[in-house]
Amino acid sequence: MFRFGTMKKLILLTLIPLFVQGQQDPQFTFNNDYNSYSNPSFMVNDYKLNVTAQHRQQWVGFKGRPITTLVNASYRVDKAWSAFGVSVLWDMLGAQHSGGATLNYAFDGKIGEHHIVPGIQMGLLYNTLDGSKLDPIQENDPNIVSSKSNGIGFDLGLSLAYMHKGLAIGFSGTHITAPTLKFEEGGTLSEYTVARHFYGYASYEALLGTHFRLKPISFAKTDGASTQFDQFLWFGTRNLNKYFDGVSLGLGYRIDDAVATAIEFKLKWFTLGYSYDITTSGINNYSSGSHEMYLRVHLFNKSEGLAALKAED
């Protein structure tokens, strides 16, 4: 039992993931077909080398809010019909600091212009629980640590994606082993099971003439206890010149949570993005919204490689 003070929502936000449903995967606005953390199959794309970094400050103004950083890196080896990568996640939420690191692999089952790509990721999850930030009604509760304690467990994810020209469809599951993380301090033991998460993704990039693009994205995530659904629409320019591809504007809606706005600048070797979420749930009374920064470095475009081969011929 816990005593709820004036920040009742904060306590609920902190305790529900820890002791009832299990750890929740972090939330992002830039959900796209380059995020190999939630779907390693998406390491197979138009570029050989990809490095993405995302930093999210969620519900700014809300004490104990989620603060998340995610880094993905991958490299495609065409002769092996494969892509290899790594993902590293840091996430802070109330009394807990969590995250993990995974090694990712995807096999490009290419048939003509169709790509059927299974993927797998393996690694470790960690969580640090600071019991001194909790406020139990029962003093010296034997089920709650009173200071910092760490838990660690094995992580496994599986994925599948289908890609054809501008179409991308993906399904994946993370934390398949549902590891139990234990926090021990003297004779006190706190533990919880990390929830399995399942993702669905679909997008289609329509090229409108020579210099415009339109890309709707549908994204869904569930841990069996709760489900998040995002719908996003990007519209922008492309092929403006050799070094600056264009700028895109995005507008989206996350059911029962937020309206999202975003802007993205794509250059030859990297893409910069920023998003601002307008909170629509009851947390809006305590928060001024959410901010997210996005950076993607992309090198060795497949179309450039084909052009070089043709030039040699």
- By CATH's scheme, which homologous superfamily applies? monomeric porin ompg
Indicate the percent of residues in helices.
under 10%
Shape: globular
The CATH architecture category equals Beta Barrel
Q: In angstroms, what is the radius of gyration?
A: 21 Å
Major sheet strand order: 1-2-3-4-6-7-8-11-13-14-15-16-17-18
Q: What is the distance, rounded to the nearest whole angstrom, between the alpha carbons of the first and last residues?
A: 74 Å
How would you characterize this protein structure?
The chain has 2 helices and 18 strands. It has 313 residues and is mostly beta strands. It has one domain: monomeric porin ompg (Porin, Beta Barrel). The strands form 2 sheets. The protein has a 14-stranded antiparallel β-barrel with strand order 1-2-3-4-6-7-8-11-13-14-15-16-17-18. A two-stranded antiparallel sheet has the order 9-10. The chain is globular, with a radius of gyration of 21 Å. 8% of the residues lie in helices and 57% in strands.
